[in-house]
Amino acid sequence: MRFYNDISLITANFNNPDLTRFMIKSFLNKGVGNIPITIIDNSNAGAFNLMPVERDCEISVVNNNNYKLTKNWGVGELSKNHAHSLDYAIKHASSKWVIICDNDILFKPAIIDLLNEIKDSQYAVIGEIGHDSVPPSRLFPYLCIINKSLIDKYRINFFDPKRCMIKFTDPQTGMLSNHYDTGYSFLEDVLANHLPIKKINLDTYCTHFLHASQNAKGVNKEDRILQWIVSNKHLIV
Predict the structure, then answer these.
(1) What does pTM read for this prediction?
(2) Please, which residues bridge with residue 106 across strands?
């Protein structure tokens, strides 16, 4: 049953189907009903295949393995192609509201209150604005909600590679490389058009694996994911 007729969710998967499934399950078990979910699969180590139980939900998979859909926008850095793939999926979404999230979050019960609050509103975007390690301000992209009908009206793209490239130093190798991220140009364009933004604290609505794992030094990523899932299983079951 659909409780929200004009909301959809978009996420991207890259070689981690279990994490993607946990995220989706944490969303669907909050009582949101059968909201359409699009998984854009960027994997290069096997395709994301829906399980039989998932086929009963409105879940679709866009096969973008090895970035075959987005390669004409420039291949190279994984981050650029990941951001392009999200932009691709958003442009093909048909709902008024689009929830955009990374696959390494788990939704908290408060998400249902947020959807109830904004579904009849005229906000252009709902999300958290702040800084990572470098300026300028950006909309944190691991969970945000955009009013696609309003964004389309002002011809705003979710990702503009010309304005979203930052120099990133890998903390493990110390190597400096290009990193493309979402949220910078998008926020800039929303503000330039004086569109309304609802600012929220994302910790109220989700837990994010990146944040949960930052202090887990000396533990490999697979073990950190397992620890994170076990400690947050109440959000999944």
Answers:
(1) 0.85
(2) 207
